[in-house]
Here is the input.
Amino acid sequence: MSVGSPPKMAPGVGPPLWLLLELTYRCPLHCVFCYNPTDFAAVGAELPASEWIRVLREARALGAVQLGLSGGEPLARDDLEPIVAEAHALGFYVNLITSGVGMTEERIGALKHAGLDHIQLSFQDSTRELNDFLSSTRTFELKAKVAELIRRYDYPMVLNVVLHRLNIDHVGEILAMAERMGAQYVELANTQYYGWAWLNRAHLLPSRAQLARAEEVTRAFRERLGAKMQIYFVVPDYFETRPKACMNGLGTVFLAIAPDGMALPCHAARMLPGLEFPNVREHDVRSIWYDSAAFNHFRGEAWMKEPCRSCPERQRDFGGCRCQAYLLTGDAANADPVCDLSPHHHLVTAAVAEAERGGAAGASALLFRDHRISIAVEPGRGAPSAR
Amino acid sequence: MSGVSAAARPAIAHGMRLQWEPAQEAHVLLYPEGMVKLNGSAGAIMSRCDGVRTVADIVADLERTYGAADLTADVAAFVELALERRWLELRE
Here is the structure.
């Protein structure tokens, strides 16, 4: 019996069912795999709460229903609570995506009262040493305390750990930590190479053997814990031969609003050249979603080049990820080079081969997400050179 | 007949939310970072699962509302599936 399905785009353009508000790029952490733009320091002033609330109303009227509040660290905004309250009153399911830094008993109580539905807490590792090293902060114990608050305030316990070469061998310990904390959902998200993670790719891409071991450990936990703790293992797509159906195709279900009000069909899309992304300060959400040139650009198939244009799989993966195509090939309309039908697939296999040889050896220094570095790095494609 | 008793009182599972979405013309089930769009019959059953009514009450209500007969097996099968997927839980 077919009783439910993930929401699919209607013929034509469906509503932006999933709304992500990146309330701020400010963050007390300095994670080496952050997907925020590397030039975040150059992004303009944050929207005030009154503007966020207008965006919520306009998006909800179009049918948006899942709401992510992220950043940066959304708790860095002291007006988070009224934003949550409005979202809840409008009927959104409200997810807070946080490092936990800034969470106190007082704030979690206020957020619960405001109607927050769910908190996703990120950890960098199962050990204090690596957690604190990877985020360049002393936050491990604080996060453990926040996990306790999440349980006490009767939220589902949802942990997110970004995996990469430096922590993927700790998957067993990470899952054991999650089990001890009573996690119901654990997302083991292998790093996707955008933003800061792109700059640091040579340090972060794991070897195949590491990946295989991590998957084996995950399988054993799944077998033992079943539905009690659901584990999502997001495979790093560099190891695949077909691309991910990124965002279900740009401009079909997902709408992100950056701290400065820029509307994006994917949180990494700001770097794509040649597109003028509209700003909610100047346009209403309806015209942005349905009418703007930037949101219509990658809808449908007219933008595709070969081999995507004539590919029988083009309606399954939509040519993969536009940002990845741009970062790796310099042209966002190319096939995602993860696909082994792409003439640029060797760029991905070369990066994987480099990881097999030991990764960071000889690479540039590991760059921590940092305001000063953000000012210094040039926006756009930047680093990797496994070409 | 299935494993779900007619006297069981199903409720929307903890941490899940069911609501009608006009834009999708459907009931949707919302949970952490996810959403399931329910078809008409699933929505009709789920929207009656309030932890107070029994499966037998829900069957009777649906039969009355839709002028149908013999919905017991269908409803029980759906409730079982929804319990398995943790969309529903049983209240004592």
Observations:
- Chain A touches chain B at residues 1-7, 15, 17-18, 62-63, 65-66, 68, 91, 93, 95, 117-118, 120, 155-156, 158, 184-185, 227 (CB under 8 Å).
